[in-house]
Structure formats: C-alpha cells, structure tokens
C-alpha cells in the first residue's frame, strides 16, 4: 500500500508512550498476525471498506509481504506500523536495490504520531539493511503534506512525473495482471546521495506493491 500520511501534529506525550520494536517476518506468530490484521482494518477502514478488505482474517499484509516490520506499541496494543522489503526495482533499464517502505499506518486515535517520527525510528534500520535508498510512493493528493513532513526536514526527496508499474497480488480472469499508477515517488537516501538515483520516468517493481 502507498505510504499514508497522518493529518495532525502529534503531542510529545503520545510519542513518548509509543515503544518501537523491530520484528522480522519469520519471528511473527499467528497471534501477532491476527493483532496486526485487526490494527490495519481499523486504521485503513475509515478511508474505505476496500482498503481494509485485504486484511480479513489473520492476513497482515496487502500485496507483497514485508521482510521486516517496525511496530509501535503502547498500552492499548499496536499503535503504528511500517513495513520494509528489500527488492530490486527497474528504472530506465537500471536495476536498483532499494528497501521499499509500505504498510504505513497509525491507529486512528493516534493519527498525530506522524510519519516523520516513524521515519526517524526506521532510518537506522535502513542503514543496517545496507541499501542505497529507501523507496515509497504516495498519492498526489498527499504531496503537499509529505513535503512538509519529510522533504523539508531533510528526510527524503519527492519526485513527480513518474509512473510506477506493479503486479497484482492475485490474478483475475478479466483483469490485467499489471497495474500502472501516476504517483509521487519518495526516495530516502541511505548509502548513496540522491544525485545517484537513476533517471527515468517509469519504475517497475517486478512484483506487487508492499
């Protein structure tokens, strides 16, 4: 799923009460997936039933499955979530290793927690994964909000005019297996400078979106 930005400024007390934990996918038990699936249904549900549908039952992912998760917990359970997946994407014929960021969500009562706070927790893990860049996408409607939250704070660079191709996680008889979207690309420089990001107007995930 696209990275979704929160709408309000978080309070210091709310941020202080959230404890962030890194969990590799192989460490998660069925009870963990069930808890996360419920969290995603409640987090994405207010934006439309379709967005919550992938998380029915104990399914805690929507398209591609994360490799590692950064999960925020508070006294009420799961408070926030960021998923990471190392993969090669193709840009203008260049294969590039990235850590895709997706499945970003904040529990509705903590919407002000903010993506910038989550990214400050995530950045050290991106360095540990040894990737040159973090990569994500957002809907154009959220571009201004993301600019304020991450670009102006020096966390990332936003790129427009780029189309991103993905495969659908499931194959349907009357639906193309490929989806192409006009989105805002968010690039987080990690091991390389943003000047080393390949030029190109089409990015191919060669797989489902995280």
| Fraction of residues in H or I helices | 10-25%
User: Which architecture does the CATH hierarchy give at level 2?
Assistant: 3-Layer(aba) Sandwich
Largest sheet: 6 strands, mixed, barrel
Number of strands: 8
Round the Cα radius of gyration to an integer and report it.
Answer: 16 Å
Q: Assign the structural class, choosing from mainly alpha, mainly beta, alpha/beta, alpha+beta, or little secondary structure.
A: alpha+beta
- Look at the structure and name the CATH superfamily: Gcn5-related N-acetyltransferase (GNAT)
The CATH topology annotation reads as Aminopeptidase
Protein name: Nodulation protein A
Subcellular location: Cytoplasm
Pfam family, one: NodA
Keywords: Acyltransferase, Cytoplasm, Nodulation, Transferase
How would you portray this structure in words?
InterPro entries: NodA, Nodulation_prot_NodA_CS. The longest helix is centred in the N-terminal third of the chain and has 15 residues, at 30-44. This protein is 23% helix and 35% strand. The chain has helices at 12-17, 30-44, 49-52, 115-129, 143-151; strands at 19-24, 68-74, 77-91, 94-106, 133-138, 157-167, 178-189, 202-204. Strands 3-4-5-7-6-8 form a six-stranded mixed barrel. Residues 1-10 have low confidence and may be disordered. The chain has a single domain (12-204), classed as 3-Layer(aba) Sandwich (Aminopeptidase). It has five helices and eight strands. It is α+β, with helices and mostly antiparallel strands.
